[in-house]
RNA sequence: GCCGCGUUGGUCAAGGGGUUAAGACGCAUCCCUUUCACGGAUGAAUCACGGGUUCGAUUCCCGUACGCGGUACCA
């Protein structure tokens, strides 16, 4: 057990877009696996046929690919423990459930959904709003524990729909050591007899996770904190199946909470507060609902991953920016924070900004091309890359390159003349008229010669250079923004610069 | 209700019996820059509460409060 190879798994159910909390779970699995030279398995938990969503599995795969957190084994690449889709393993689970029945650790239950409903409403009180199918209640239900063996046999023989439930001990203290929280204790009496095998023959999560973790030789199982309450069921299953010595070590990850108030972060919070929650764009094929993702919003995958790593984990130093290699080297489950973390989009933007500034201009240009295309702008990647170099310092998102540099691609449509108008006069007007003709004669339209001629003329006309720079900026950009103004002129080129001066002059005359 | 897990500035968080209780994001002011941003400086802002234990608790123990999660033939 101790010397067993590290094998971890991410086990999503393909029911929709991949939540940022899901990606963080992937990340922690991935880091742990890489650090310990182990395997990272992707297993699709599609045991609920009613919740299956077309395209969700491919979407998850694509998210992992985008983040660079690919699995070593999974439905997409196969592996020694295939198949990796639980629906394709369906036949496997029944024998274990039957085995448990045979050994007296589980039982058949024939209660119909209506009967269960009836039981719950009948037993429901203010003191007990959610009655459980537990060690007391089971004695009064239609199951093989209460029925005579002949009755059970008859029901089975006639193909009566039934489930198999675990028989939880009435009162037993059990505990396990969580890698993050340390010892956690439960009493089995407080947990109900969970269904293990559904009437349709599919296992529930509880059975499938134990069987598959065993069969796939999973050494460490990481999942969200919302699973902590069902840990006792899983512990009992590992015992009852006789695999106790193979049980993986568990870590229950803290939840990612919504920024305002408390509670698990959901897609809805993102819609409401205007930030992405899913890794990539997701369109629900059933409802047609469309949700924006981090990727399409202009986040860089390495920034996204770095940001996620810091949500609930740190290495104990002041370092916040980590390459994936550093994360692999430094990650440890013991340093994961115990409490949930509120998601903060501002901080996420800061991370992205850090990575944008560092990123290669060519690469950013490529990422930005689709946005440009959307705006109906034609430009060479080369040209875009130089623009990127000038504006990326002030961008948090790749898509913001447009906001900070649109005037490189088209003449401004709107001009904010208000900072110029009050101090505008005939001298200044004359300056720009004269300067335009000076520019016309310039053989070298470089940053320095443009700036030089600007300053020379201003001095000779006895106007402060500073008084003219802002007007010039607005002539080129349309407002008080953008990189250094002579850089803009140089990039725009002689023809366009003069054209913009002349156009703005007519606007100022109006 | 019951069970479980949590609680250090607005947010992410380090620390762990004696500290001026780090750092980052955000915010504010200033410097740089005659735009904005970057950068630099400064500042406001924190140990949920009550009992123990102790010479001394933010740190250990016990309660309380609050928050979250679970309580499905969903995962």
TrEMBL record:
Record's GO cellular component terms: cytosol
Pfam families: Anticodon_2, tRNA-synt_1c
Motif 'KMSKS' region: positions: 264-268
Ranges where the Aminoacyl-tRNA synthetase class I anticodon-binding domain occurs: 363-505
Locations listed in the record: Cytoplasm
Domain Glutamyl/glutaminyl-tRNA synthetase class Ib catalytic as annotated: residue spans: 5-350
SUPFAM superfamilies: An anticodon-binding domain of class I aminoacyl-tRNA synthetases (SSF48163), Nucleotidylyl transferase (SSF52374)
Catalytic reaction list: tRNA(Glu) + L-glutamate + ATP = L-glutamyl-tRNA(Glu) + AMP + diphosphate
Keyword annotations of the record: Aminoacyl-tRNA synthetase, ATP-binding, Cytoplasm, Ligase, Nucleotide-binding, Protein biosynthesis
Record has Protein biosynthesis as a keyword: yes
Superkingdom, natural source: Bacteria
Binding residues for ATP: 267
GO molecular function, a single term: zinc ion binding
Motif ('HIGH' region): 12-22
Keyword ATP-binding: yes
E.C. designation(s): 6.1.1.17
GO biological process terms on file: glutamyl-tRNA aminoacylation
Binding partners and assembly: Monomer.
HAMAP family reported in the protein's UniProt record: Glu_tRNA_synth_type1
Similarity annotation: Belongs to the class-I aminoacyl-tRNA synthetase family. Glutamate--tRNA ligase type 1 subfamily.
Function field: Catalyzes the attachment of glutamate to tRNA(Glu) in a two-step reaction: glutamate is first activated by ATP to form Glu-AMP and then transferred to the acceptor end of tRNA(Glu).
Protein name: Glutamate--tRNA ligase
Gene name in the database record: gltX
């Amino acid at each position: 057990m101790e010397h067993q190879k590290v094998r971890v798994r991410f086990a999503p159910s393909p029911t929709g877009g991949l939540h940022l909390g899901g990606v963080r779970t992937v990340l922690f699995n991935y880091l742990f696996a890489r650090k310990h030279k182990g395997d990272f398995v992707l297993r699709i938990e599609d045991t609920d046929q009613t919740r299956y969503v077309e395209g969700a599995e491919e979407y998850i795969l694509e998210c992992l690919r985008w983040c660079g957190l690919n699995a070593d084994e999974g439905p997409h690449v196969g592996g020694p423990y295939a198949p990796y889709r639980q629906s394709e393993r369906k036949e496997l689970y029944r024998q274990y459930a039957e085995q448990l029945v045979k050994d007296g650790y589980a039982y058949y239950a024939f209660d119909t959904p209506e009967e269960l409903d009836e039981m719950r409403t009948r037993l429901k009180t203010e003191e007990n709003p959610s009655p459980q199918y537990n060690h007391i209640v089971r004695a009064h239900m239609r199951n093989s524990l209460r029925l005579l063996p002949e009755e059970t046999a008859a029901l089975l023989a006639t193909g009566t729909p039934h489930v198999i439930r675990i028989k939880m001990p009435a009162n037993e203290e059990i505990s396990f050591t969580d890698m993050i929280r340390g010892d956690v204790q439960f009493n089995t009496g407080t947990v109900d007899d969970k269904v293990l095998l559904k009437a349709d023959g599919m296992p529930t999560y509880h059975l499938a996770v134990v069987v598959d973790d065993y069969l796939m030789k999973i050494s460490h199982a990481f999942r969200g904190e919302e699973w902590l309450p069902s840990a006792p069921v899983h512990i009992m299953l590992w015992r009852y199946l006789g695999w106790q010595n193979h049980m993986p070590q568990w870590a229950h990850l803290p939840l990612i909470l919504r920024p305002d108030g408390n509670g698990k972060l959901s897609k809805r919070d993102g819609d409401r507060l205007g930030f992405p929650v899913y890794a990539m764009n997701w369109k629900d094929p059933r409802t047609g609902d469309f949700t924006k993702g981090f990727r399409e919003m202009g986040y860089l995958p390495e920034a996204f991953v770095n940001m996620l790593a810091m949500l609930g984990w740190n290495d104990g130093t002041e370092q916040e920016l980590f390459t994936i290699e550093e994360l692999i080297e430094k990650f440890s489950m013991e340093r994961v924070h115990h409490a949930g973390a509120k998601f903060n989009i501002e901080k996420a933007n800061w991370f992205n900004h850090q990575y944008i500034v560092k990123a290669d201009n060519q690469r950013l240009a490529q990422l930005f091309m689709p946005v440009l295309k959307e705006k109906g702008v034609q430009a060479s990647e080369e040209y875009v890359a130089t623009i990127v170099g000038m504006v990326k310092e002030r961008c948090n998102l790749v898509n913001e390159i447009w906001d900070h540099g649109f005037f490189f691609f088209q003449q401004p449509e709107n001009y904010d003349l208000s900072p110029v108008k009050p101090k505008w006069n005939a001298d200044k007007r004359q300056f720009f008229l004269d300067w335009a003709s000076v520019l016309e004669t310039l053989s070298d339209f470089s940053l320095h010669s443009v700036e030089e001629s600007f300053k020379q003329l201003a001095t000779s006309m006895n106007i402060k250079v500073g008084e003219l720079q802002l007007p010039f900026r607005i002539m080129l950009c349309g407002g008080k923004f953008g990189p250094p103004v002579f850089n803009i002129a140089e990039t725009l080129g002689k023809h366009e610069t003069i054209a913009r001066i002349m156009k703005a002059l007519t606007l100022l005359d109006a």
